[in-house]
Amino acid sequence: MNFTPNFKPDGTICDWLNKHAELSPDKICYQFSNGDSDLTWSALFDKVNKIAKYLVKLNINKGDSIAICMSNGRPALQIFYAILYGGFRVTPLNLAAGPAALGHAISHSKCKHIFVDDPQLETLNNALLETDTNPKIINVSNSLIEETDPSIKLHNISPSDHALLMYTSGTTGVPKGVIHTHSSLLAGGWTTAVAHNLQSSDRALCVLPLYHINGLCVTVIAPLISGGSSVICPKFSNSNFWTDCEKFKITWFSVVPTIISHLLHGKNDPSEITKKRLRFGRSASAPLAVDTQSSFEKRFGVPIIETMGLTETAAQILSNPLPPGQRKIGSPGIAFGNKVKIVLPNGDDQINNTIGEIAVKGPNVMLEYLDNYEASQKTFTNDGWLLTGDLGYIDNDGYVFVSGRLKELIIKGGENISPREIDDALYAHKDVIEAAAFAIPCDIYGQRIEAAVKLTKNSKAIEAEFLNLCYSKLGKFKAPDKIHFMDELPKGPSGKIQRIKLLDVTDGLNKNKVY
Fold this sequence. Notes:
Helix content is 29%, strand content 24%. It has helices at 13-23, 41-57, 74-85, 99-109, 121-128, 182-195, 213-226, 241-247, 257-264, 272-277, 290-300, 373-379, 419-427, 463-474, 502-505, and strands at 28-32, 39-40, 65-69, 89-92, 113-116, 136-139, 162-167, 177-181, 203-206, 229-232, 252-255, 280-283, 304-310, 315-319, 334-335, 339-343, 356-361, 368-369, 386-394, 400-405, 410-412, 415-417, 432-442, 446-455, 482-485. The relative contact order is 0.09.
C-alpha cells in the first residue's frame, strides 16, 4: 500500500485499517465529544472484525446494501467500517431527508438490514411507512452486535468492489443513489489529505453528519489515509465548537459556510493557544461569501481554505492551497488528485475566463448511479468526464470560480443571473448570518428575484437597507424585489441552504403564485 502525494492509495478500506492496527495499534484514531470512549486502531480493528463476522453469520450476500440510520458517535462509526470490512455496501440514510426520501432510499437500495439507535427509531419508523419493503431492524441501543467465532470467514474484497451507496439530496427530483467503490472512496480521502498536507499528528474536528459525503470522506476517510485522528461530534454546536477545539487539541476542522457565518456572529472566541494550534479551517459544500471569509479570518485569526466537492466525487475536487500558497478569496481553488475543466453545452472545451459547466475526471469519481442508466449516461461525457451541474470559469492561474448551479440559474427578461451574486451582496451587511436569493414566476420578465435572510438576534435592520445595498453592488435589474426575514433558512443535511425550497416557505409563496 502507498500513500504519497503523487499516487492515489491502493488496496481497500479494509487493507488500510489492517495496516494501522498492525503498525500503530495503540494510537488513538477516533474520539467522541459526546463522552463515548476513545478508539485506538487496534480497538477499532477488533470491534469492526467482530461486527463484520456477525453480519456474515446473518447470511447477507457479498455486495448487498446494509443501511445505517444512526446519530454521529462511536457505534455508527464502528458499524460503518464493519459493513465495509465484511464485504458489504454501506448505505447511510440521510436523517434530514424526510420520510418519503428515506423510504425511497430503503426501497431503491434493496437493503434487507438496517442498523438504528434509539434516538433515530422514530425517524426510521416514519420512513418505513413510505415503503412496502420489510427489512430487518437491528437496534444497536438494545443489542450486542458482534460475533467472536474465529472460524467465520469474511468475504474477499477487491478495490473495485462496491463500498458506499449514498443518496443525493434530491431537491430537484427523486434522490439518486451514488455508488463508490473501495478505490474511489479511498481516493476521496486522499484528495483531502494531499490538498491539506495532512500528517499523522493532525486531528480533525467533525461536526458534520457521517451520512453526508463531506463529513464521511473528509473527516473519517482522510485520517484513515494520513494516519491522523478525528474527533466526532453529534452535531454542530456554536457554544461548544471552540471549547471542543481546545479540549481535544484540534489542528483543523471541516465545516460549511452557514457554520462559518454562525461562528462569526457568535459570542465565543478560541483561546490564543487554540488559534496557534489550528492550522486551518476548511469550508465546503457551498460557496463561501467573500465578506464572511474575510471577517472570520480577521476576527479569529484562523485561515479558511475554501474547497468544492460532490457526493459523486467522494467529496473534494478543488481546494485552495494552504498558506503560504496563494489562496484566492471567492474561489474554491485548484484541482488536487483529479482533473477539472470547463465545457460548453455542445461538449467543446471552454477557454480560460469564460463561463461553462465544470467537469471533473479522476480516481475519486463515482462508478455510477444505482439502477439509473439514463442519469449515469447524462452525467458522464463520452470520454469519461463527470458533469457537475455547476457553472463557472477557470482563470489564467488555474483557479476555478463558481457562478452558480445550472438548475438554480435565474433567467430574468432573458438575462442569466447567478443567485450567488445576490447572496454575496447581502452577506456584506454586518447583521446577515444566512442569505439566499431565489426566483419566482413573473408574467412580465418570466422570473423575478427575491431573497431570504437570517439576521443576528438583536438586529434592527430593515428591508430598505438590503435593497439599497444590492442596488449599489449589483444595479437595480439584478437586485431582489423583496427581502424575506426568516428565523432559519431551509437546509440540507450538511447545512447547505436549499434555495429551491424557499419559494414554498417564504411568506406563503408557492409555485403557482404569479407576480
